[in-house]
Amino acid sequence: MSLNQIRLAVPCLALFSASPLLAQQQSSPPTPAVSIKRNFASVNRRLLAMAEDFPAEKYDYRPTKDVRSFGEVIVHAMSGNVYASKAGRGEKVKWDELDAKNYKGKAEIVSALKKSIADADATLNAVPDEQFAKTLGPWMGVMEHSAEHYGQLVVYYRLNGLVPPESRPKSKTN
Question: Which is it for the CA torsion 27, 125, 70, 105, positive or negative?
Fold first, then answer.
C-alpha cells in the first residue's frame, strides 16, 4: 500500500468506525422527561393555535345542545393545565372544573389559556428529570385529556367548513 493510499484510508476508516456510534446516538429514544415535555408542549401548541385561529363569532358554536361549545371546550382543556401546575408542584389538589362563564369571549379565553400553558410549562420544567422514572403523573393524564379535546375541536372546525391549523399545508421554506 502506498503512502497516499494510507493517507486516504485512515480518515475513511475513522469515519466508518464512528458511523455506528453516531447512528446509535441519533436513534436513541428520548428520556421520559424529554418525551413528556415535548408532548405536553405539542398538544398545548396545537390547542392554542386553534383557540387563536377559530373565529370569535363561532366560540359559542356547539354541534348539538348536549355538548360544550368551542369556547367551553378550550376552558375545559385549560382546567387540565391548571390541575397539572398544582399537582406538579406537589399540592394536594383535585381536578376542579374552571367555569367557562367566568371568561367573556375569545380574547379572555385565549389569554387565560396562554397563562395556563405558561404556568404548567414552568412547573413541568422545574420537575427533576429523575422524577419521571418514578411517575409520569400528572402529565400523562393531562396530555391524554387535552389530546382528546383537540380531536373534538378538529370536528368542530370541520363542521364549520374550516381547516384546523395543524391540517393546513405547511410552507416549504426553510
Answer: negative
Listed by start position, the domains of the chain span: 33-165
Q: How far is CA 162 from the centre of its chain?
A: 22
Of 3.40.50.150, 3.40.50.200, 1.10.760.10, 1.20.120.450, which CATH number belongs to 33-165?
A: 1.20.120.450
Task: Let me know: does 77 contact 61? Beta carbons within 8 Å.
Answer: no
pLDDT in tens, the chain (174 residues): 544 444 444 444 444 444 455 555 567 899 999 999 999 999 999 999 999 999 999 999 999 999 999 999 999 999 999 999 999 999 999 988 899 999 999 999 999 999 999 999 999 999 999 999 899 999 999 999 999 999 999 999 999 999 999 999 987 765
Contact 85, 78 (CB under 8 A): no
Q: What pTM was computed for the model?
A: 0.82
